[in-house]
Amino acid sequence: MDFALWIVAGLLALAFGAGGAGKIVVPKEKITAIKTGRWAEDWSPRALKAIGALELLAAAGLILPAALGVMPVLVPLAAVGLVLVMVGAIVVHARRGENGQILVNLAYLALAAFVAWGRFGPEAFIG
């Protein structure tokens, strides 16, 4: 199970690292021009950058604390943070009627919840 948790955490870190970086460097106009990025119309450019920063921090928090052996309790906390971000994303997409995006968010939420459960519970980092 430890291996599965590392794989899932790594995949989440890649996805949210790329997504977060994109929200920080890509202008709002380019994000909203993409069909799956229309949700960003409801947010200011500064808010998009803040969301991107949260996603980047979560991506780093899923891997670096455990890999470096420094405060590995941050791994499940980062996963809980991603669960909260995905709850927010689901609310935004539901309000906009973007049901296809809700399914994607639910998948990410489930993966992040799996990492949080696993790292708080049966495969917690000890020491």
Automatic annotation (TrEMBL):
Keywords: Membrane, Transmembrane, Transmembrane helix
Main location: membrane
Location relative to the cell: Membrane
Keyword flag Transmembrane helix: yes
Record InterPro entries: DoxX
Pfam families reported for this sequence: DoxX_2
Membrane topology designation: Multi-pass membrane protein
Regions that span the bilayer: 6-26, 47-68, 74-95, 102-120
Name of the molecule in the record: DoxX family protein
